[in-house]
Amino acid sequence: QVQLVQSGGGLVQPGGSLRLSCTASGLTFASATMNWYRQAPGKEREWVAAIGSAGGDTDYIDSVKGRFTISRDNAKNTVNLQMSSLKPEDTAVYYCNARRVYWPQYNYWGQGTQVTVSS
Description:
Blueprint: E1 3-8, E2 10-12, E3 18-25, E4 33-39, E5 46-51, E6 58-60, E7 68-73, E8 78-83, E9 92-100, E10 106-109, E11 113-117
């Protein structure tokens, strides 16, 4: 059974930092592209960041570039999202995602964790 278990998140003031983590089990983690998505109230879920299976390739939505850093530790089956200089518009439920587009294909989601940026 595949599980993506998220931790971190919470309430932070504007300009603050938070770290999200996601630990996977039941899949070959080193073969997965890992993503972070977020969904704000009343909005569609949007992709935030991605990291390739080996960890060398990363990409970000423009609104978080220079503020968020995605990383992974394949030995620990963990992907992290370090968020700095947080803004109120970063408030959302954040989801980690494990995806493989080649056989065997899969697309798994974490349970979501709330991030609230407010003074």
